[in-house]
Target: Transmembrane protein 161A
Amino acid sequence: MALMGFQLVVSLLAASIMQRMAPHCSFARWLLCNGSLFRFKHPSEGELCALAGKQMPKTNRRDRRQNGAGENKPLTVPKDINLQLETAPVNVLDALVLRFFLEYQWLLDFAVYALGVFLFTEAYYCVVDASKEVNIGAIWCVLTILFCLKTLHTLMSHYFRSEEGGERSVCLAFGFLSLLVAMLVLVVREDYLEFGLEAGFANLFENLEVFAKQQGYEWSVPVTKLTVKLLLAALCAFIGALLAFPGLRLAQTHLDAVEMNTDRPFIQILLHASFLSPVIVVLLWVKPIARDFLGNAPMGKTSVTLISSSAFSSVRLWTVVVLCLLRLALTRYHLQAYLNLSQKWVDRMKREAGRIAAIDIQRKVTRVFCYLTVVTLQYLAPIILVLFSTLALKSLGDFSWGLLPEEPGVTPAVPPPTSAPSVAPGLGEDDDVEDMEEDIQATVVRLTEALSALRGVLTPVFYRGLFAFLTWWVAACQVISSLFGIYFHQYLMQN
Model:
């Protein structure tokens, strides 16, 4: 029996296509360089001198080297000059020199191919009974989550290396706040937050205890349970620190995007719905608000069942996916709102008195564009985390996309591993070939036994609790950081 079957072939084909097509066709490059985003070009010294009403100094580089760099004063212009920045569409050559562009391109392209493999796997499971095969689509989803966390860690490391140290303090503060909130959430009963963590942990420890006894090991389950919860709280703190600046950036781009589209009320409604989508995701796992209200709606002294339990789980999955697609569709508005910070800074400068060095104007305008891919990662990475956590929850948690009521699924028992089939010894020159076949069959049997043991320990009950909690926690971190960002940009920055 094949371990992964046709899925493995498609997975290897997708990896090969991604490697070969990345230099020629990239969704990440298209997202930034499709002509819909416009950057602001920094003014030259000649343009600034013309606006200031004075002539450009005639000293060239050779004269400056002869006279000495210390004798040349920096060119300064009045702040209230009538400066209007020129715009130009973002092209591929501009994007290639941006900071963290390679990390951005790799993550987004991998997420696109992972989504394609997942969709193929879902269609494959609908046509073929592949319950005994390893779900390749789920593996790609888990890898996407890990790569996304690694990319966010790279961005956070950049803030930690900052000389000022303010960014480091913000990350640490959000990390400790997330640790406190996670420890409070983990002690909430399942009657209020229905992640299924308790059932998942109970199932995991029961399977581990059986597996350990088979291997001749013993340990204390209560101590292990407490240790696992502490490790999960530490992971939550780490994720909270990673999502601190993405939430703050989302708040700023949301306010600027709403202001940029004042004459388009429908776009404003979509922007507000996109900003509040993490709140909706958080409420979907609050049992008194979501399942109890929709599943058993109170009608006087009685309650009416609107949708079944399995249908509600499917509706919840569909809701999260639709909200993620909505936020992805509004990416251009948020990125353009960020690029408009150059002109906003120039407009604010013109209301001030005094003089400013021309090099400072050029640096400020250029710096906004240089961090475009960083802002794009901060906007897209949380969406990718929530989306692929939901897809992994569907695949590994044995859920369904169907909205019709279903019978509760039963996890099939893993059949005991079979011994390697015996091969009759050959004669003469066929001995080497037969020995190789026996080695391959023995390897297949050992790998089958390992995967069977793993599937016996990590069951869908455990995956449901783990990925439901991960999806909810990422959304909760976005809510905390983005709402704090709204308060910071609306009130603290204005005072």
